């Protein structure tokens, strides 16, 4: 029995070892916790981090706008003039109709 095991080991041992190492490498690269999955997750984390940074900057700008709207008289005047159409005493507001770009007439064949 022991002789058959040694003979089998000599005959197939190296091939089985190479096969086993190959299977482990494929699993480490493409498996559920392999290199490819981890790389995809890292890229996803980078994208989400960039989006969070963008949203934080936008949030800071909006907070500054709210602060200006509450405290800055110039900002309040600007919005009153532009959006509400208010004017100082003695000023006249002239509104011009919005012009839409005209397309040239289509050439007739």
Entry summary:
This protein has helices spanning 2-30, 35-71, 73-82. By secondary structure, the chain is an all-alpha fold.
Structure description:
The chain has a domain at 8-82. The model has no long low-confidence stretch (mean pLDDT 85). It has helices spanning 2-30, 35-71, 73-82. The protein is elongated, with a radius of gyration of 36 Å. The termini are far apart. Helices cover 70% and strands 0% of the residues. With 109 residues, it is mainly α.
Q: Which features does this protein show?
A:
mainly alpha, 3 helices, 70% helix, elongated
The rounded Rg comes to 36 Å
Order of helices and strands: HHH
Amount of beta strand: under 5%
Helix content: 55-70%
What is the 3D shape?
Answer: elongated
What secondary-structure arrangement, pairings included, does this model have?
Layout: H1 2-30, H2 35-71, H3 73-82
């Amino acid at each position: 029995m022991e002789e058959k095991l040694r003979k089998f080991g000599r005959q197939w041992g190296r091939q089985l070892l190479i096969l086993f190492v190959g299977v482990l490498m494929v699993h480490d690269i493409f498996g559920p916790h392999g290199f490819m999955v981890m790389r995809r997750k890292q890229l996803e984390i980078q994208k989400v981090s960039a989006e969070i940074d963008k949203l934080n900057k936008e949030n800071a700008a909006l907070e500054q706008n709210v602060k200006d709207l509450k405290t800055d008289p110039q900002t309040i005047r600007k919005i009153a003039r532009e959006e509400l159409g208010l004017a100082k005493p003695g000023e006249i507001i002239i509104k011009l109709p919005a012009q839409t770009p005209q397309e040239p007439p289509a050439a007739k064949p």
